[in-house]
User: Fold 2-amino-3-carboxymuconate-6-semialdehyde decarboxylase from Micromonospora humi.
Amino acid sequence: MPLPVVDVHTHVVPKGWPDLAAACGGSGWPWLRVDSERAAMIMVGETEFRPVGAPCWDAPTRLADMAADGVDVQVVSPTPVFFGYDRPADQAVKVARIFNDLTLEVTAAGGDRLVPFCQVPLQDPDAACAELDRCLAAGHAGVEIGNHVGDRDLDDAGIVQFLTHCAEVGAPVFVHPWDMPGGPRLNRWMARWLTGMPAETHLSVLALILGGVFDRVPETLRICFAHGGGSFPFWLGRADNAWHRRGDLVRGASTAPPSSYLDRFSVDSVVFEPAALRLLVDTMGADRVLLGSDYPYPLGERPVGQVVHRSDFLTDAQRAALLGGNALRFLGAGVAVERSEAIRGLLSIDRDWTGVVDDDKVAPA
Assistant:
């Protein structure tokens, strides 16, 4: 039987949140203006922040899109705007509980085909570990974290404590960039998403390597970075060169050059072009690239997996690994997924993988 096709990078915005100021304390929280059964607007105060649609909260819509794209399973993660890392920890704990519980309601309607990942109050490592444990017991399969907490990167002692706990309890970690720098040069052309996100992810991979995190946390840590690992894979040679030539400034707490750590993390496949995917596979290895889409947001890939299907340099075994085998290893033995009866044989159909679904009514992650 073919391996299931697993998309590890999708997002949820559930309906039905309470007034977050009343429920969590503080002010300035987002709220959801519901415009119709299938359309809503995330509001911050009276400012329209982001339009969202039924794919964000409606399991049948997600399942229909998955069937159309030949996807058996989605990993369903929070939308980063709700992380709350910039707030007092007690408020972030409360908002995490609210959204984690609502996410379980969304994914429950999809059965085993929708695999929920939780969010945690990462600014407080003890609270983050406690919320992760609560969520794993409730049915979440892993956790999505942002790539930094203010000026604290992933080599911060508290975040390392949390990552160590993830390794100890067997929870996979998906790292998504968020809170990118702004300013006049970046607040146009979606530059914060187009340049800021890749740079943020690049910096966070370096933090795990040069900050000595991979030399300290258990090797059982399963961690995956969004958007193909940002700009890190393309500039790996530059990082290695700097490690050797300017070790006094670059090596930090690492014990080997960056290229020595590529077997410690994975990246998703959201790079859109076969040439970019080839560089990613050549750099990371075909066993370290997982199918991702950024569904349901318009900067994501639709049809899901088209770059993997269009990349004729991949062997059949490599393509199967990228489409699902690697994700199964990332998720771990505790997550049971299998090929959906609804789409058995779909990927054997001769289909056009060059089309792009154009949806400008849903904003970026």
